[in-house]
Write a structure and sequence with these properties.
The complex is a heterodimer. By secondary structure, chain A is of the alpha+beta class. Chain A folds into three domains: 215 residues, Aldehyde oxidase/xanthine dehydrogenase, a/b hammerhead (Aldehyde Oxidoreductase, domain 3); 249 residues, 2-Layer Sandwich (Aldehyde Oxidoreductase, domain 4); 169 residues, Aldehyde Oxidoreductase, domain 4 (2-Layer Sandwich). Chain A has 20 helices and 29 strands. Chain A has a seven-stranded mixed sheet with strand order 3-5-1-12-9-10-11, sandwiched between helices. Chain A has a six-stranded mixed sheet with strand order 7-15-14-13-8-29, sandwiched between helices. A four-stranded mixed sheet of chain A has the order 18-26-27-28, with helices on both faces. In chain A, a hairpin with a 6-residue loop joins strand 26 and strand 27. In chain A, helix 10 runs parallel beside helix 19, helix 14 packs parallel to helix 15 and helix 18 crosses helix 19. The N and C termini of chain A lie far apart (73 Å). In chain B, strand 2 and strand 3 form a beta hairpin. By secondary structure, chain B is an alpha+beta fold. Helix content of chain B is 33%, strand content 40%. The two termini of chain B are 13 Å apart. Chain B has a nine-stranded antiparallel sheet with strand order 1-7-6-5-4-3-2-9-8. Chain B has one domain: START domain (Alpha-D-Glucose-1,6-Bisphosphate, Chain A, domain 4), CATH 3.30.530. The chains are: A alpha+beta, B alpha+beta.
């Protein structure tokens, strides 16, 4: 029996290419002198009326092929970009135009598009365009948006795009009647994904085929394809979108279509030339998307044990200038905030607000880090108030293992009920306590304090809805060579899909792992797909691939049984060979079965001879049986009822410098439950990456907007991303595997979890470290820098000097 | 953003006042100023080449002086735009005499720096603008102390523009302008490079 690959630490097949510089990204496509390059003029102002655009200095510039403004767009291209996810509560949704029409609403908004012989000429041309602006007062930050003294969009009263409320029971009454009450006001700032590869699009129009081919760095090639077809008034069948290697997405590339994703194809068709646009880093800062910014007000009522009797959460979500991605982020915050807990009543209400800043779309975690921050800060506050151990207050509120499936009575981001499928939170808590040394920590803290050192510990729990629908599909094709070609439509941004999906196929089909080749994100190979987001690739495409491989296996066995004249039940498949159980010499390999699956009239090589009409077939039967198709293929789709819920707990021990307030990580521990593991090494890689990004979000990264809406740190000189020196040396990981009942593999998503608890866990640990010397010091805003911690200390002087 | 600062020039207030209202002096003393066109009383259109870190370029814009209180103060409004970005500033300039024969020029500016120079060059803005302000005032000081005519008429070419307005072109600098120097010179400062300093300082000051 071949060893199952599911659950094995199989080396990533992608790494040879990536580590040797052989990755192939959008900018590597279409390299040559006949390619035209695009550049974009972007608004230098956060809020302004466009009085006039003068392109006369560009028109006769040598090497310029096109210069477009809004006035040059027609038909659907002149309409606003799509509002991708409409929602009844999004009463005032607004999206931008591909090129600004009359008004700009954030610094970085696209105004004009130039196509030239090369990027240098294109950029020079952009510099020659003169725009006359009438400046309008900008709305920057949540307080300014709420005060509504100025409006982002004149027709959006109060700057409120949406107000949404969900209730379970009567939380306000429950809080009033509860033995204890607390209120918290919290703030979390903006950050952004910053993938190494920014956005990029290449398009080529083929006049002979009347067909457009586009390569784009996206998390959804089928989504971009549909958008291009609609906007350029083409049939879906005239558009192919290919997503090659992607140098990171982290959420930002799920939003689509970006203006350039439409303008580049339009230019390719209009000019009859291949056109390329590659975003630079500054453009990524000012014209892509950000996330995280929220202000929260929490009221909670609880009993003497810390049991949540009523939880009332209000928050204000800064969604920037436009709402192309609807309310997904704040809906996730409002629902996933509950984590592993079961408050007896819950009310949540949010307002999603316009500001004159870059728009907000999901960034890894997608609203969960904010929700986790709110809930876990509340848990810590309750524990402090009652003088109880922080783990005890959490444990008493956990949903218990025998309570699954657990229905919260809320509607989740996919429009389905928020119903947890499985989990074991008490077991996770026991594991994290052991892993981080929770019970031993007070002694360590005391020992350190005696040496004048401040250390603190914190922990934070989360539950993450992963693998949301609607569906994914897969196609498995066994070639006559015996190689197995697998296609699934969602895209890959470095997760290792080619490895884990090949593991699943090899397991199901019995072929060699090395013989499986996986293609993702190519609409020519799989036209029906949704995309890579919400930690869904393994769950959705993994399940679909498993099902498609199963179908292929059924066909293999049917043909093999016919050829070997045995019963299907007596066959086994190992290493790409079908043999009779107990009589392995009676065998046939997958390649030959593939040959036999396609009855031929013509032979073109030795192998195909075997399938020609005088060699095979029962003269009394049609060569292709009824209900069968020629070829050895399997195709299937997976569409679950609802998301599957992964969970985990992070803990961190930090040390803060008594003088400089520098924050140092001493230990970071993760207990993670994403159901059955396909490849533990890849899951751990996801956790490592997530923790690194979380450290950045908790301690370093923020978007420094000034009051006029200028982003002051729009480069890696000033926007701090952690180096390896800032990320914990070792991350201790322990896995728990509670299988999901919702999919055939029992798996759950793992992509985002690493980043979800970061703000909460660091706030808790820093507060714990400071508590002895600065009583009452509470961390209510993240990220936190040493100077902010220093300022907080000054507000909470040590008792002896108070 | 609000920015403020001050510089002392070793010249009496009345001379400094006159110099700052003289476009021939301005075009010769504003770092990076290439061209100044009088579009009305105390109103100028101008071209300034300036660089902050790697972001350099030519800005065209306007400068107007208003609320003139002789030897006491004025308000300068500046607007500039170029490929690297934009600057819009209102600068309140005040003159005082800290010691006989000396003039202290203090300024308070409310400025918006937009585009690339604001987002990428901001960490350099402070030092660049301070240096420019210092350079400007020292240029003004030397222009005043130079023999009459040298700064004001001999080197500055004045001509009539097609509209009939006076156009002033900066003299060629002796020995040419080293690129490094040129670079550091002038940001958007129109006549009031002062404002520039302001801008820069403000941006820096806002970072927390």
């Amino acid at each position: 029996m071949t060893t199952k690959l599911m659950g094995q630490k199989v080396q990533r097949v992608e790494d040879q290419r990536f580590l040797r510089g052989k990755g192939r990204y959008v900018d590597d496509v279409a390299v040559g002198t006949d390619v035209l390059h695009a550049a974009v003029l972007r608004s230098p102002h956060a809020h302004a009326r466009i009085v006039d655009i003068d392109v006369s200095d560009v028109l006769d510039l040598e090497g310029v092929h096109a210069v477009w403004t809004y006035d040059d767009l027609t038909g659907p291209m002149a309409e606003p970009l799509p509002l991708l996810i409409p929602h009844p509560a999004l009463t005032h949704g607004r999206t931008q135009y591909a090129l600004a029409r009359d008004e700009v609403n954030y610094m970085g908004e696209a105004i004009a598009f130039v196509v030239a012989d090369d990027r240098y000429v294109a950029e020079d041309a952009v510099g020659r365009i003169r725009v006359d602006y009438e400046l309008l007062p900008p709305v920057v930050g949540i307080p300014a948006a709420r005060s509504a003294e100025r409006l982002v969009h004149e027709d959006v009263p109060g700057n409120v795009g949406a107000r949404m409320e969900q209730n379970v029971g009567d939380a306000k009454a429950a809080i009033q009647q509860a033995p204890h009450q607390l209120a918290l006001d919290l703030t979390i700032e903006r950050s952004s994904c910053q993938p190494m590869e920014g956005r990029g699009t290449v398009a080529r129009w083929d006049p002979d085929q009347d067909r457009l081919q586009a390569w784009t760095s996206t998390q959804t090639s089928t989504g971009v394809r549909a958008a291009i077809a609609v906007k350029l008034e083409l049939d879906l069948g005239q558009v192919d979108v290919i997503t090659p290697d992607v140098g990171g997405g982290f959420g930002v590339k799920i939003n689509h279509p970006w203006p350039e994703e439409l303008l580049v194809p339009l230019a390719a068709r209009t000019l009859g030339r291949t056109v390329k646009y590659t975003e630079d880093r500054r453009e990524h800062f000012i014209s892509t998307a950000h996330e995280r910014g929220q202000v929260q007000h929490i009221e909670v009522g609880f009993d003497d044990d810390g049991r949540l009797l009523g939880l009332d959460v209000e928050f204000w979500h800064d969604h920037g200038a436009y709402t192309p991605y609807g309310l997904i982020v704040p809906i996730i915050t409002s629902t996933q905030l509950l984590g592993p807990y079961k408050p007896q009543s819950y009310r949540v209400v949010f307002e999603s607000l316009y500001t004159n800043t870059v728009m907000v779309t999901p960034y890894r975690g997608a609203g969960r880090p904010q929700g986790c921050f709110a809930m876990e800060r509340t848990m810590d506050a309750i524990a402090a108030y009652l003088g109880k151990d922080r783990t005890a207050v959490r444990a008493i509120n956990f949903i218990q293992p025998d309570e699954f499936p657990y229905d919260h009575g809320l509607v989740f981001q996919d429009g389905r009920e928020l119903e947890y499928d499985s989990g074991d939170y008490p077991a996770s808590l026991e594991k994290i306590k052991a892993l981080v040394g929770w019970d031993e920590f007070p002694a360590f803290q005391e020992e350190m304090a005696a040496q004048g050192r401040r250390v603190g510990i914190g922990l934070a729990c989360y539950v993450e809805g992963t693998g949301v629908g609607p569906y994914e599909g897969a196609h498995v094709h066994i070639e006559t060579s015996g190689k197995v070609k697998v296609a699934t439509g969602l895209t890959t941004q470095g997760q290792g899909h080619a490895t884990v999906f090949a593991q699943l196929v090899a397991d199901e089909l019995g072929c060699a792992f090395e013989d499986v080749e996986v293609v993702t994100g190519d609409t020519r190979r799989m036209a029906y797909a949704v995309g890579t987001f919400a930690s869904r690739a393994a769950v959705m495409s993994g399940s679909a691939i498993h099902l498609a491989a199963k179908r292929a296996r059924e066909k293999v066995l049917k043909i093999a049984a016919d050829a070997l004249e045995v019963d299907e039940k007596d066959l086994q498949i190992e290493n790409g060979v079908v043999s009779v159980k107990g009589a392995p010499e009676t065998s046939i390999d997958l390649g030959t079965i593939s040959v036999l699956s396609n009855p031929l009239r013509y032979a073109f090589d030795e192998a195909s001879k075997a399938a020609t009409q005088f060699q095979v077939g029962d003269p009394g039967k049609p060569p292709v049986p009824e209900d069968e198709e020629p070829g050895l293929e399997g195709k299937d789709f997976y569409s679950p009822e609802r998301a599957t819920f992964a969970s985990g707990i992070h803990a961190v021990i930090v040390e803060t410098d008594p003088e400089t307030a520098e924050i140092k990580i001493l230990k970071y521990a993760v207990v993670h439950d994403c159901g059955n593991l396909i490849n533990p090494m890849i899951v751990e890689g996801q956790i490592h990456g997530g923790v690194a990004q979380g450290v950045g979000g908790a301690l370093y990264e923020r978007m420094a907007y000034d009051e006029s809406g200028q982003l002051l740190n729009a480069s890696f000189m000033d926007f701090l991303i952690p180096y390896v020196t800032e990320v914990p040396d070792g991350i201790d990981i322990d896995h728990l595997e509670t299988p999901s009942p919702l999919n055939p593999l029992g798996i759950k998503g793992a992509g985002e979890a690493g980043v979800i608890p970061s703000a909460a866990v660091f706030a808790a640990a820093i507060e714990d470290a400071e508590g002895l010397d600065h009583p009452g010091l509470a961390i209510t805003a993240m990220p936190i820098s040493p100077s902010e911690l220093f300022a907080l200390r000054a507000q909470h002087p040590p008792e002896e000097s108070a | 953003m609000k920015i403020s600062g001050s510089n002392v020039v070793d010249q009496p207030v009345d001379k400094v006042w006159d110099a700052l209202l003289d476009p021939r002096v301005l075009v010769a003393t504003i770092p990076g100023c290439e061209r100044l066109e009088e579009t009305g009383q105390h109103q100028y259109a101008m071209t300034v080449t300036a660089g902050v870190a790697a972001i350099k370029g030519t800005y065209s814009g306007s400068c107007s002086l208003s609320d003139l209180r002789e030897r006491e103060g004025l308000v300068m409004k500046l607007q500039g735009a170029g490929a690297p970005g934009t600057v819009d500033a209102t600068v309140d300039v005040r003159f005082s005499e800290p010691a006989p024969g000396q003039t202290e020029i203090s300024y308070e500016a409310d400025a918006v720096v937009g585009g690339m120079v604001g987002g990428v060059g901001q960490r350099m803005l402070s030092s660049v603008s301070k240096r420019m302000a210092g350079e400007f005032f020292s240029n003004v000081g030397s222009a005043i102390s130079a023999p009459p005519g040298v700064a004001a008429s001999a080197e500055v070419a004045a001509s009539a523009s097609p509209s009939g307005a006076q156009v002033f072109t900066a003299p060629a600098k002796a020995g040419g302008i080293s690129s490094q120097d040129d670079f550091i010179k002038g940001i958007v400062v129109g006549a009031g490079l002062v404002l520039l300093g302001v801008v820069a300082g403000s941006v820096f000051g806002r970072r927390r």
